[in-house]
Amino acid sequence: MKSVFFIIWAFLGAWSPALYAGEEVIPLDSIRLPSDDLIFQGELLNPERAWQMSKDPMNPLDLSQLTPVPSEVWGPNTRGPLDPTLDEMALSKDQTVQFQGIIGSNIGVLRFNALSLDGEANRVYTILLEKTLHVTLLRKNLLRKLGFKIPAMKFIPHLRVQFSSIEERDLFISRQIPDGTYGAPSRWIPEEQTKPEYKELVVDLYDVIAFEPKETDHYNTAMGVPPRRLTSRTLRSVLLPYALLDIGESLNKTSWIVGMKDNKTVRLPHFTEADFSTTLDDALWMSRRMRELTREDFEEIVNESYFPSPVNKLVLEKIISRRNALLKIFEPKAGEISFNAEVSDGKILKKGRLIQEEWPGYSARFAHGLPDSPFRDTHLYLLSKLQASSIDGLIQTANEKLSAFDIGKARSKFHQDQFKEGLDHFVETGEFIEFPIGTWFSPVLDGSIITQRDIVIGNTMGTDNMVQLADTFGLAITVGGHLGIENFAYGAHASVRAGLNLLKTYSHLKPVKSLKETFKQPYKNIIVPLLKNSLKKKLYNIAASESDLSAMAEKEKKEQLEKMMAEVNKNLGVGESLIITTKITPSVLVSGGGSFMETSFTLGASTELVTINRLHLYRKDAKTIQVYDDRGDGREFKVFAGVNYYIPVLKLESSQTNGKYKVKLFDLNIDNDLEANPNFFSNANALYEVLTGGSTELLEYKTKPFVVENDYKDTSTRYAFLVWRAKYLKGNSLYSITDKKGNKTDYVSIESDDQSGINYLSFLKDVTNYYLQKYLAPEGINISLDPERFKNPGQSTFGVAETRSARYEARLFGEDESLNKKEVRDPFISLTYKKEGWSASEKKLKKLMEEINEKYEAKLFDTNTVNDIKSLKLFDVRVNIYLYDSAVEQLENLDDSIIDDMAKKYKAARAFSPECDRRHNRMMKPEQMMRCGYLDNLKSLNQTCKKEKTRSVSEHGRCLLKLSSQMEKWFEFKDFIKVIGEKNYYLFGTVDGFRTKSEILNDTIESHTLGEISGRYWNGPLETLKKYLGIQSGEFEGRWIRESL
Known about the structure:
The protein is of the alpha+beta class. Among the domains are: about 15-30 and about 90-350, no CATH class; about 370-490, no CATH class; about 885-980, no CATH class. It has 27 helices and 28 strands. The chain has a 16-stranded antiparallel β-sheet that branches. A hairpin with a 7-residue loop joins strand 5 (about 110-115) and strand 6 (about 125-130). The longest helix is centred in the middle third of the chain and has 23 residues, at about 405-430.
């Protein structure tokens, strides 16, 4: 008997299946040693010899055509029907077995030995329980089709298991099943048999696999491969079938494609812990074998895996789709097998999505149900906007009472006095008086209460959450004076206002998972200082409890600590922010305007100085609170103009901002495991002091912070015409970063963003404001909605936007005090093209993907990735091109003759196109000229860049950024790559957003990639630094004081 159990352990013990999520990378270049089991001309080929023969310049050997030596695991059998006799064993459905004990297994799997009580006595079986059991059966069938020798594995729908005692039975049910499978016992055992009232020693077990180990069995590749580095083609190649069937429990979460070309490699998922070390030749060999399988073969593979009928149909279609995608990676010309992504079966399977979650008699939940989503109920989002506008309206009405002086009355009095003077003059002389330009003055002393609750889309207040509930409470005071200037011709007027604005706000930002939950938040939470005081009190209680807790028993101490942390979590949960801001803004505004018939005009300029002091507590994770101590100063000059015809028709703004800011970042461990975190109480006390005094002095005494300093210069130009919006931002940043040890590093960052789009909601608010003013103002009610005129249109309700972004980054070295004169190292350029909007259908997403594929002349996106996306809310489809230091060097050394050659090529190719034919287009717009190959502007820009190289780091970086962006835009992509070098760039695309009617909420869809990562920092030195620091991008970039898209 002992020898039998040893065989069982050897058979399954080391390589049982697991929930381990692995990923293997197959290089597309021949850099790995060939497999050691290849047959050439009837003899086993040594790997080193195989390598040499494959590199023979005269007659290279195609290693992918070689067959591995037959073994106990694989044989070169011809493809045929599955043989059910391979799984024959005496054990069958409804039989009873005697429980013998659990076998050690990997996570997610439970195995136990059992003796047969029916039929042949004392026959030993191993019984397997796992949530993805039918996927294991899929692997068995597919591998047998491919020639692998799989030992007997029999699906048993129902089995009765007898235990020796109640204690043994209860241990199996209450501990061993959930600990082994990560599933509830009721998945396999009837609910009534899991309850204490059940007294029988026999339980019913459903949905299992039985093994009958034999001494002749080798290890079972359907269950996995050895957890070591593999060297044979037989085992290396099994990676492809594993990837094809890398299917989780929920079929709705299973992608329609598998495999990704990335950085000159192919990434494939699998479920084992093995290091496959698969070569491209191994993959090509297996790909050809899999290519031979027909739809009928896959139907047999799936049918013999015993899924419920509706699940069976979906599994078949998804596997075939995944097969197509996988083979296309290795053999682009491989034929496809047709499949139906809209497969349906009554009310259970609708258009490729399973509706039913629980399946009687099956342990798997083949569908998990829809997750909470911020946009599951769009009407609730619109209701939240109405709620925000209502609160704003009420507060506006209240704030009217807080103005000490009415500017309107001062102006009215001026005109009344002039009217009286003019009337008296007319009565006396009979002549009308012509008044010279006159002025009037009014002091300004306004107070306002700030009370806001809104669902905010996009990064806000220097935070990085995509959708969040923002509660803000604060006070503002404005002191100054207003000088009105009247009596211009045609009724024009002007004014000058100078003032000092003092602002204090408290904000609480909370990530939104469900809009329904946001409406359950008490309105008292809008008074954020109450939340701040509550959090402060709870932190104080923790800090003050140290001595009392030290006298308690460990269990009681742990319980008390859990309770206290639970109270803290109520005020500041994971992902939430508490922000306290003090802002002082002296400003001067000069404006003028006039009207003609129903059209009015405005024109003006303003300048202001901004000083911001800010504390930001951010709950990074369950064990960490980040404290940001922000200090910033900025100087802005802005000009603006506008045209109104009842409502705003045209608005133009342009501004330039210079400033500096400093961010101190502290990471505080609040893990209440005192052994792991002995500073728990002192950290709680430090947070209490931060909230009490608004100072990080104690924190800085305890631990040195990371410090980010930035000297920035930004320009912004904004346009609005009815529903259309455009924004152009340029930013120059010179960063100095100091780590906790006092080491300082310097960086330069240059940014350029061009965005345009449609914002229907802003336009609707303008129209609403017109009617509010028309009908409510005469009643003394002055309420208006904030149109958020220059908010990103792509993040507005029903809006869309298109953005081109460019970024230049580099490290700075040298002793020169001026950062702009230092030496540049590791230069990096990022070019991004993005389309985003409120919602995109599956059809629209596929169209966007196809446009990208066409533009870059490669199949970057497989459109089947969005087969299960009925619509994508807040969609973001983008392509990123990263240019590394060698590419930047190519740009710096670019010769004008290359541009001339491209111009000549494009002119010749496009001369007679409708757009470029000079016979019909005498006058061309600048962009049209560029599209037609007239590239003189690029030559001029190239010369400018060469001149700027010795002048200023920032200006040279700005010029290179513009040159690379213009070349990528106007060159054909293949020509652009020839210029910068095929090994000097990395291109990839992504699709993001919130999925509707999908079990996947917002996972990123990645494209295949072009090029390779060849720089020291794959996505730029500053992005690498942000990840290292663990700092939020909004904080690092100072978006709490600087403008962003």
